[in-house]
Amino acid sequence: MMYRLIRTAILSAMVWSAVIFSSQASAWGPSPAHARTMVGWHPGTIGLYQHHVSGNTDGGNPCSTAYCNMVSLRDRAVMWRSWWGHKGATATYANHTMIAAMEAMIWEHYHRYSVSAIAGGSHSTYSHHYNGDAFDVPEIAGTPVSYSDPHHNAFMQFCRNYGAQEVLGPGNAGHSNHVHCAKFAPYNVWN
Asked: In 3D, which of 37, 32, 20 has the Cα closest to residue 187?
């Protein structure tokens, strides 16, 4: 019963946040409410990688793993890029619609999934990751993403439904082992 009350309170706050975000001219900026729920309320539902798939480490620079991006977004309202990426160890805001969509995909569709990169890592020169407007998903419902996994096509469609204008996965060059959701349109993801 307590879980339902907490979940209802979180959903109510998220709905109002999404409405406020959709009415703003810019979709970028602090998203601490969504980051707070992503980091603290989803054990076993969303796996935020605490390492980089490349094997690179952040060393003394700000932590830029998917997990650290969400913690930093929650605590400081920014996410950090990796020192070896095209933008260096610099901060970026997050696209509110993307963060809200990541959250909504859990609540609305009960998807368990892992996120390997948000703003950190090394991507193509003009990647939306560097603008806090992309995330990579290497595992859905406990199954690694591949040409033959049963979940990636539905997940890619969910990304499109929640406003992603750039959705790549198996069948697209460089994306055979993960789904890439990016370039989120600023609109109310709860419609």
From this structure: 20
pTM reported for the whole predicted model: 0.78
> Who contacts 28 (Cβ-Cβ below 8 Å, separation ≥6)?
93, 94, 95, 96, 131, 132, 133
Indicate the length of the chain as a whole number.
191
Query: What tens digit of pLDDT does each residue of 131-164 get?
Result: 999 999 999 988 999 999 999 999 999 999 999 9
Could you identify the residue written with the tokens 């409410």?
33
Q: How far is CA 190 from CA 21, 70, 143, 161, in A?
A: 11, 21, 27, 10
- Residues 39/56, Cβ–Cβ less than 8 Å: no
Rounded Cα distance, 153 and 169, in Å: 8
Select from 69, 182, 170 the least CA-distant residue to 124: 182
CB 168 within 8 A of CB 175: yes
* Nearest one of 69, 65, 8, 15 to 38, comparing CA atoms: 69
More confident position, 188 or 185: 185
pLDDT tens-digit profile of 3-17? 333 333 333 333 333
